[in-house]
Amino acid sequence: MNHSPTPDRGNTNEQQAKGRALRLHAYGGPEALKVDHVSSPEPGPGEVLVSIKAAAVNGIDWKIREGHLRERFKLTLPATLGIEMAGVVIRTGYDVTNVKPGDRVMAALGGVGAYTDFLVIDAEKLVLTPAGLSDVQAAAIPVAAMTAWHVIQAADFDLSGKRVLIQGAAGGVGGFAVQFAKMAGATVYATASTTSLQHVRALGADDVIDYRQQTLENLADQIDLVVDLVGGVVLDQCWDLLAPGGLLVSIAAPDVIARAPLGRRGVFLSNKPDTARLASIAQQVAAGTLRSTIAEVISLGDLPLAIERNRTGHPPGKIVADLTLK
Ligand SMILES: NC(=O)c1ccc[n+]([C@@H]2O[C@H](COP(=O)([O-])OP(=O)(O)OC[C@H]3O[C@@H](n4cnc5c(N)ncnc54)[C@H](OP(=O)(O)O)[C@@H]3O)[C@@H](O)[C@H]2O)c1
Question: Which ranges of the sequence are coiled-coil (predicted)?
Answer without folding.
Answer: none
